[in-house]
Every structure is written in structure tokens, then in C-alpha cells.
Design a protein that fits this description.
Elements: E1 7-14, E2 20-28, E3 34-36, E4 39-40, E5 45-46, E6 50-52, E7 60-69, E8 72-81, E9 92-96, E10 108-116, E11 119-129, E12 132-135, E13 138-139, E14 144-148, E15 157-162, E16 171-179, E17 182-190, E18 201-204, H1 213-245, H2 250-256, E19 258-259, H3 279-293
Antiparallel strand pairs: 1-2, 1-9, 2-3, 3-4, 5-6, 6-7, 7-8, 7-19, 8-9, 10-11, 10-18, 11-12, 12-13, 14-15, 15-16, 16-17, 17-18
Helix pairs in contact: 1-3
Amino acid sequence: MALAIAGTYMTFLEDSSQKWNPGPFIVIGDDATVTVDGTSINQPTIGANVTWSAANNNPSSANIAFIVTATGKSCYGTYVAGSGPLPASNNISGTSQPPPQTLTSWNGTYNTFVLSGTKWDKDSTLVVNAPIVTYNGKQILNALYTGIKGTPPNPDVDQLAWFTASGNADNVIISFLMSSGNKTFGGTKWDSGSEPTTPNFTGTTAATPTPPTITVEIALVLVVKATTEAVEAVEAVEAVEAVEVVEVEAVEVVEVVEVVALAEEDKKPPGKGSAAYDPKADAKASADLAAKASQLAPKKK
């Protein structure tokens, strides 16, 4: 039986300065399994929210709500890497949508570069020959491909990721973009620990011995562009509807959006804010989260 919230979620995390950065790739399986950046989560609870705890030998803890509508799936809640306590307010938001373009659209051989201090060093090559992806001469295992449909003038965001938990040498999350007729990507690469908060990995199909200026610029702004698109997606799926329904009765909230995967029995998730599920409160929380995130959206002239 298919699980309504099953999907690959591109997420974004809010830091202490209220800046949004790329978050973990969260995959919910139809069999109720949960993986985070390729690592299987031990003893997840699938109920009113999806929760897991570092106390069960996991690399993180979370308490995340999911919403499904006709246009897509979204999630929001609290997340912390390591064994620390969950934050008091929502700090993660994400969306699961079909990629705007097929992976085949990004087929090509990319000259890759890594950031060392303030200098971009020549690295290796990334070859996309969908569905096969090869980096540094080795075929990537269990690559994940997802994206967010852009709202003009913002571009679509197509993301490719792979992780060491699947037997790869590196953890990588990159976003593709066209630049001056060349296929380009920017993102992050790391061996262990938490994902870097700034882009440090870029590539281009242009045959150049050093990264062109535009590639570096793209690497530096892709996070902002991707975050903006995520904000818009979350606003479209969650926040706009949440704002509209926040003042109506909770039963009407359920009628407006399908709040998924209610447990037969209420189970209190770990961490703060572990009260039984409240659709009205969660809708308000979603609106508050999106309001913070909307500060990143480009101003309309």
C-alpha cells in the first residue's frame, strides 16, 4: 500500500541568523522507511508527524509535519543534526516534486572544481549519461534526482545528490543551470559530518582549464535561487493555504488541505512542542515559517 507522504524531499534549514541554507535530502518510502542524506533512520515514528531521535543511534533528530495537495507534497518542522535538542521553533521546510527536467537534459561531461580557501582548484570530471552518473571515474550508487519548478523570472532548480552511506566516496548535492550555452552546476561536496553551508563544488561542460567567472558566480548564488524556489513552493503548497485557513475551524483546515498520515493513536514526538496533532496550530506554524523565508524572495519592481 502506497504511503501518501512517500517521496524525495529537497529541504532547507534556517540558521540562527534566519538565513536559509540547503538542508538534508529526506526520503520517505512507501514501506514507511526514512533515510536522511542516504542514511537509514532507526525507529522512525510515522504518525501525525514523522519523528526520529538521535537517542536511537541516528545522526539527527526531527519532528516534521507533511502536507499533500494536488500540486505537490511539502514538509515543515524542527530538525537538528547530532545529539542536541530540537529547536523551539520550526527551522526546516521542504518540498517533493517531479524534477522540472529529466536527468537526460543534463547529459554531458563536466569539468569540476573544488573550493580551497578562496581559490577554485581543478578537480576531476562528472559524467552524466542518464541514468548513469560517474564522478572521478567511479559510477555513483543510488543517485537521487529531484527539483522545484521555477516561477518566472526564477529558473527551474534540478538537483542531483549522492551520499557515502550508499557506498560512494563523497557526499554531494548539486543544482544544474544553463550558462552562456554551457551546462553548469554548483553545490556542495563533503566527506563526513554536516553539509557545508556555502557552495564548494562546481562544474561546467565548457572546455576551459579554469572555472569561468560565471561558473563561480553561479555556484555562489545557486543556494539563494534554490532557497527562493523552495520558499515559493512551500508558500504555494502550505503557506498561502495556511494563511487562508488559519482563522477558520480546524475541521475546515482538513477539508482545504489533506493532512496526511494521522496515527490511529496520538503519539507524542520527542523534543519540545510534543502536544497531540493540531491542524490549526500547524497551519499557523507553516505560515510563520514561510513568512520568515519570504524575506529571501526577490523584490518585485
